[in-house]
Design brief:
Distance between the termini: 92 Å
Strand content: 5-15%
Bound molecules: flavin-adenine dinucleotide
CATH superfamily of the largest domain: Butyryl-CoA Dehydrogenase, subunit A, domain 2
Low-confidence stretches: none
Strand order of the largest sheet: 2-1-10-11-7-6
Helix content: 40-55%
Largest sheet: 6 strands, mixed
Shape: globular
Length: about 475
């Protein structure tokens, strides 16, 4: 099989999977008004032809055409392409799986050489089949976890972290739940990975494998999101009028996984590296997405000030200068991440310090910038009439007369921008994005831990100890002042 069309992807979702949404079983995700909408968006990234197809496909050595988003980057150019694809509309949903498969490949060779295991061949065979069949997969990592202060083996209920409960010559049986899985109702496969680094006592929870979305024993509950506002409200919600995004909790109720789909089974000592590689790849998306999004905030701030006739005020200039400082810093981090790469087992890995710093910088600065945007837009960010009132002949002229900006700026222009700021800074979608920015792809604490892990704090202590010891050592007598 070669690359699939959007229709083939949609048909592949009609496989008897068990999905619940808003308290009801969803009979067919492809015809459900909300899941169907999102399925068609994902399908759009498959269905390309001509030059669009050339931009998202690569040839395997045997000539077969496959989607590029599944090919691990081999050099810095490939890494840049991967990162750009990962943060684009086309590749966004697909690239994450490459992070998982590439990270598994990196630790598989260690398992094989240290333990005589056979993981490299398995991961390669699975990846090859996956890429050639052009499947869609999402990552199932985040465990339910229970008491966060305790590791898996000390939980009151051992199922709170996904674990292996049985093993035979055919494969393993897993039980547990993975939470917050993006687009989980619209995927062909789940790539199950451990959430945290594990210790020897947690070997049964050190498991990585691939599970089809319709495997017996898999049950999905999607969170309730509500319907998007739709085309009619395009003016009022320019960024999100047609967005439906959902996250699922996947319940693995004693699910059988054959050996050719098992990529880690008890190798707890490899979990730390697996997660390190994975999070570095996964967070590298911030390297293009965040500089671009920060530039959009700068653009919105500058335009709002211009429309309101306040472009030259000191307060506005200070706010924008701070945003520019962050945009520049993010550009430099992108440069560092792509310059300080490592080639591990033939895969080009970006610098993890730069990736984590970029994510932390964004999480720290973004809420303040969004607040400044709301301040600049004023009350209308929450209270202005709708774009529909601009179209209604009964009200249009009034709205057009009173919502203008400075001379030459029409009400349509000013309200269009105000609604844009509402959508990214004050709406329910903005709240989602805000919470997501401090949780998705790991909390700030997890990113800080990743930053400090390889930093030599004891060398800092030694510097101070040296200074103090130097101060205590006998000093040559000072020359008498003439
Ligand atoms: C929009 C969105 C999309 C996501 N998509 C996916 C996805 O596709 N696949 C997937 O697997 N996951 C996904 N996630 C999950 C995401 O990776 C997790 O939310 C994140 O790793 C945090 O885990 P948690 O939610 O279980 O929070 P918790 O681990 O419960 O953390 C909650 C808070 O407690 C703190 N904490 C936890 N343990 C300790 C401890 N021992 N000591 C001190 N403090 C602690 C954390 O730092 C955090 O501040 C998504 C999340 C969001 C918001």
């Amino acid at each position: 099989m070669s690359i699939r069309t959007g229709d083939q992807y949609i048909r592949s979702l009609r496989d008897g999977r068990t999905v619940y949404y808003a308290g009801e079983r969803v009979a067919d995700v492809t015809t459900h008004p909300l899941f169907g909408l999102r399925a068609r968006q994902i399908a759009g990234s498959f269905a390309s032809d001509g030059s669009a197809l050339a931009a998202v496909t690569s040839q395997l050595p045997d000539g077969e055409l496959v989607h590029s988003w599944y090919m691990p980057p081999r050099d810095q150019t490939g890494l840049l392409r991967y990162i750009e694809m990962e943060s684009s509309d086309h590749g966004g949903g697909h690239g994450a799986i490459m992070s998982g498969l590439a990270s598994l490949q990196l630790v598989a060779s260690r398992a094989d050489s240290e333990l005589g295991a056979n993981y490299v061949a398995r991961v390669k065979a699975y990846s090859d089949r996956f890429i050639r069949d052009d499947l869609h997969a999402v990552l199932a990592m985040t465990d339910a976890k229970g008491d966060r202060s305790k590791p898996p083996h000390r939980q009151a209920d051992p199922d709170l972290w996904l674990r292996v409960i049985d093993r035979s010559s055919e494969g393993i049986v897993i039980r547990g739940a993975k939470t917050s899985v993006t687009d989980g109702a619209l995927t062909n496969e789940f790539l199950v990975l451990p959430t945290h680094a594990m210790s020897a006592d947690d070997a049964a929870w050190s498991v990585a494998c691939a599970v089809p979305a319709n495997a017996p024993g898999v049950l999905l509950i999607s969170n309730y999101v509500g319907a998007p506002w739709g085309e009619r409200f395009r003016f009022d919600r320019p960024a999100t009028f047609n967005d439906f995004r959902h996250e699922v909790t996947i319940f693995f109720n004693d699910v059988f996984v054959p050996w050719d789909r098992v990529f880690m089974d008890g190798e707890f000592h490899l979990t730390r590296d697996l997660i390190r590689y994975f999070t570095t790849f996964h967070r590298s998306g911030t390297l293009t997405r965040e500089p671009r999004d920060t530039k959009k905030l700068i653009g919105a701030a500058q335009l709002m000030a211009r429309y309101n006739g306040l472009e030259s005020t000191g307060q506005v200039k200070t706010v924008i200068a701070e945003m520019v400082e962050t945009a520049q810093l993010l550009e430099l981090l992108r440069f560092s991440a792509l310059a300080r790469t490592q080639i591990i087992e033939g895969v080009c890995v970006p610098d993890s310090v730069a990736c984590n710093l970029a994510a932390l910088t964004t999480a720290r600065t973004r809420p303040g910038y969004l607040q400044s945007l709301c301040e600049m837009a004023g009350g209308p960010v929450l209270t202005a009439p709708s774009g529909l009132d601009l179209e209604n002949p009964d009200t249009a002229e009034l709205v057009k007369k009173y919502y203008v900006g400075k001379d030459g700026v029409s009400a349509e222009q000013r309200l269009g921008l105000v609604k844009y700021i509402y959508d990214i800074a004050a709406s329910d979608s903005a709240g989602f994005a805000r919470a997501s920015s401090v949780t998705a792809a790991g909390s700030p604490s997890a990113k800080r831990m990743a930053l400090t892990r390889d930093f030599d704090i004891e060398a800092c202590v030694a510097l101070v100890a040296d200074d103090i010891a130097g101060a205590r050592a006998p000093q040559p007598a000072a020359a008498p002042v003439a």
